[in-house]
């Protein structure tokens, strides 16, 4: 588990025993460091120790595949009801932001990443987030491991953020527990359509697709209105449910 060391608007991620060297001086992070501690550099500059929380993962994880945004993660959690103790199958891991959020919810996650270097980065990210005991990052193409992974099932939730998600959805009835959900994130609507078709063909229920658009509010001196900067589109989320 790592902690954020915060000084004004600066934040650094460090583990117990690490050293932080900046223009504010050198600071050794004690092994028994706790959130709320105030640590001083050798120049007397103070850093407050803060526990790493979900949104911090975006700023401090090393990035590989484009991570899912909080608004989309919120929809995944809301629509699947994923909770502590649930077993989740995820692909692709990418940066691992979704996996780490799920691990922080105390779900047990098996996540596949086809790119070996990305998988190594994601394992380190899980360690930084303190969820490496609950998030099992496996190197490989999930579509090539479906028979083996079915033996690890059933899973309560499947989360997919890959172009070949429809091939996994086709196997969802073998992988999901009764009543379990699949959630597929797609940046393009064509991929969502293929996902919906695959879900319908294998008899999944409650097949729904949502476009996620979030509008930030501007509260200015002249008045309040939605921000005019950008459309706020991130992608499409398709949900479906296994009911035997
Ligand atoms: C957009 S990123 C996923 C981001 C992730 N959801 C997050 O929140 O950080 C997609 C990742 O899926 C991986 N990928 C694509 N197809 C895959 C497959 N069939 N099996 C495993 N990983 C795959 C890619 O290498 C890429 O790293």
Number of domain units: 2
Class from helix and strand fractions: alpha/beta
Low-pLDDT regions = none
Number of helices: 8
Please report the total strand number as a whole number.
15
Q: Roughly what is the average pLDDT, rounded to an integer?
A: 95
Bound ligands: S-adenosylmethionine
State the fourth-level CATH superfamily of the largest domain.
Vaccinia Virus protein VP39
Secondary-structure arrangement, i.e. CATH architecture of the largest domain: 3-Layer(aba) Sandwich
What is the alpha-carbon Rg in Å?
20 Å
CATH topology of the largest domain: Rossmann fold
Question: Any overview of this molecule?
Answer:
There is one protein chain. With 244 residues, this protein is an alpha/beta fold. The chain has two domains: 3-51, Vcp-like ATPase, Chain A, domain 2 (Roll), CATH 3.10.330.20; 57-241, Vaccinia Virus protein VP39 (Rossmann fold), CATH 3.40.50. Helices cover 27% and strands 34% of the residues. The chain has helices at 56-60, 70-80, 97-104, 116-129, 146-152, 165-169, 172-175, 189-201, and strands at 3-7, 10-14, 19-22, 25-28, 38-40, 46-51, 87-91, 108-113, 135-139, 155-160, 176-186, 205-213, 217-219, 224-226, 233-241. The strands form four sheets. It has a seven-stranded mixed sheet with strand order 9-8-7-10-11-15-12, with helices on both faces. Strand 1 (3-7) and strand 2 form a beta hairpin. The radius of gyration is 20 Å and the shape is globular. The mean pLDDT is 95. The structure holds S-adenosylmethionine. Residues 64-68, 91-92, 94-98, 112-115, 118, 141-143, 161-162, 164 line the site of S-adenosylmethionine (SAM).
